[in-house]
Amino acid sequence: MSNETGATGSKSVVKIPSTIRLLLEQIGQFADAHGVSAYAVGGCVRDWLLGIPDSLDLDVAVEGQGIVVARAIGHVLGGSLTVHEQFGTASLQLTGRRGGRVDFASCRKETYARPAAYPKVIAGTMHDDLFRRDFSVNAMAVALRPGQFGRLVDPFHGARDLGRQVLRVLHDRSFLDDPSRLLRGVRFAQRFGLRWERRTTAAARAAIAQGALGWLNAGRLRRELDRMCEEPDPVGCLRQLVWLFAR
């Protein structure tokens, strides 16, 4: 795939699995009918670029009211819709042949009052929404709007990093803002065979030296450790974690 990434996106077109293409086209059409743009975001985009079959659990970000789009698509396709008004999110559990779950969210921007705090969330653009994510390989989106369907949005060069097998944070304070990214980085690096980029390694070790993992509450820390144990190679994850702690 040729990736021509600019400041706001890419000219590349992502091959979307045929099993979910129609569903995503419908979501894009419903969003467009409501005057907003919808995008598939995050891990599903990374997996499509790697040729990994999709699990049908999809994340969709909307530049506008994501709940409105979720309700519209749920009304037509059926299924069970759970709405969280305070967060601007909704989950649609589809039934029958479609199956799977689609999580909808309004694009948002996050700021952190202090390290490891839960972020303050305000409405944002697609660019804002991608910038708040953990690593470049997870900070990509695919446009669902008719006429742009399948276009890769990659302002932080995640596709390039994926091709080079590099794990890279988006900014130097990333691990201080959210120390759980240290453990997620270990999981992603081990699962996908990624090598830690030099500045990312330096930022991770600096955060560890400041005791950042200790800033997480017990629940968040336990969840990340449980996810690490559920990885295909949990021992490899632990080796990566030990390597990070080594200076």
Q: Can you characterise this structure?
A:
The protein has 247 residues and is α+β, with helices and mostly antiparallel strands. The chain folds into two domains: 18-161, Beta Polymerase, domain 2 (2-Layer Sandwich); 165-245, Hydrophobic Seed Protein, CATH 1.10.110. The chain is 41% helix and 18% strand. The protein contains ten helices and eleven strands. The protein has helices at 18-33, 43-50, 66-77, 126-131, 158-164, 174-177, 180-192, 198-209, 218-229, 234-245; strands spanning 37-41, 57-63, 80-84, 89-93, 101-106, 108-111, 120-123, 141-143, 152-153, 166-167, 195-196. Strands 3-4-5-2-1-8-9 form a seven-stranded mixed beta sheet. A hairpin with an 8-residue loop joins strand 8 and strand 9. Helix 1 (18-33) packs across helix 3 (66-77) and helix 7 (180-192) crosses helix 10 (234-245). The longest helix is centred in the first third of the chain and has 16 residues, at 18-33. It is globular and about 55 Å long. The protein starts with 17 loop residues before the first helix and ends with a helix. The model is unreliable at 1-8 (pLDDT under 50).
